[in-house]
Amino acid sequence: MLFSLQSRKHFSQLLENEILALAISAEEDDARIYAGYADRTRKEYPATAAMFDAMEADEDNHRRALIADYQRRFGNVIPLVRREHVAGYISRRPVWLVENLGIERIRQEAANMESDAYHFYLRAAQQTGDADTRRLLGDLAAQEHGHMTQASAAENTHVHTEAKDKEDQQAHRQFILTWVQPGLAGLMDGSVSTLAPIFATAFATHNPWTTFLVGLAASVGAGISMGFTEAVHDDGVISGRGSPLKRGLACGVMTALGGLGHALPYLIPHFWTATIIAFVVVFIELLAIVWIQNRYMETPLVRAFFQIALGGALVLIAGILIGGQY
Predict the structure, then answer these.
(1) In angstroms, rounded to a whole number, what is the distance separating the alpha carbons of residues 64 and 219?
(2) Of 107, 84, 220, 207, nearest to 163 (Cα)?
(3) According to DSSP H, which parts of the chain are helical?
(4) What domains lie within the chain, and their CATH numbers?
(5) Which residues in the chain come in under a pLDDT of 70?
(6) How is residue 58 annotated by DSSP?
(7) pLDDT of residue 315
(8) Does residue 189 contact residue 230 with C-beta atoms inside 8 Å?
(9) In this predicted structure, what is the pLDDT of residue 207?
(10) How far is the CA of 63 from the CAs of 29, 53, 66, 257, in angstroms?
């Protein structure tokens, strides 16, 4: 159910029992979020998963302590007060929105959760004039600060330097396999394979608009073909290369961009101006491929440049020669 701002209570309007009930439900939610993070990271990052397990246990302990305090002060019936019922209260990102984030981002999300809760309660305590409510909010802020300290201790215990480095290396490897490698293959295919049809059309017709249409068709068609091929030929289960959807998207988009780079200059109506700019764009594309190979695939710079320059030059010459026969 969605609540409009008019149907929500502001935090400053909550009674003390409602504030405590809100804290209890928040602890329950955070415990489930940490459980989800632990399940998400357990296979590839067991040390981080152990940290989230410990943080989930801490949240459960805090929830039980808050419930005991509520029973002592207000009885056994706890009103249903959740985050979405309170205007201006801290929100939590749904777990499914962080499933595709890197391991460092997931750790940062957890740190943000603890920090947000601490600062919110601290600000709320400073804004109230009621002594009992101010004391209650201060106690909650102190508890959240304790959560932050415990989270740091849990990370030091479960994610020591060696384990963290190992997990970071695994995350980097997964990034390479899922995004960089398919994207690089697409950029190489789009930049190199479209050289022949685009420049053959250019030198055969000397018509920039026709050349652009051929380049557009070749680039989009190659992008769709390469994207589907990357996505369907390997589901990533055995190879560990990650989601086929992500790999297909990376490959398809970069293939299309690689071809469009030297097709777009032919929107310029003057043939030789468009062609010279297209040559410059091709050179920039090839340099980008060389840089990516050297930066992420650790291919020696000279060898990468020679391979790409030779392949691109051969395809370019073939396109110009074929087009010049018309």
Answers:
(1) 60
(2) 107
(3) 16-41, 46-74, 103-127, 131-158, 161-175, 181-193, 195-205, 208-233, 244-261, 271-296, 301-324
(4) 5-159 (1.20.1260.10), 166-324 (no CATH)
(5) 1-6, 88-91, 93-102, 124, 127-130, 133, 146-172, 234-240, 319, 323-326
(6) H
(7) 77
(8) no
(9) 94
(10) 10, 15, 5, 52
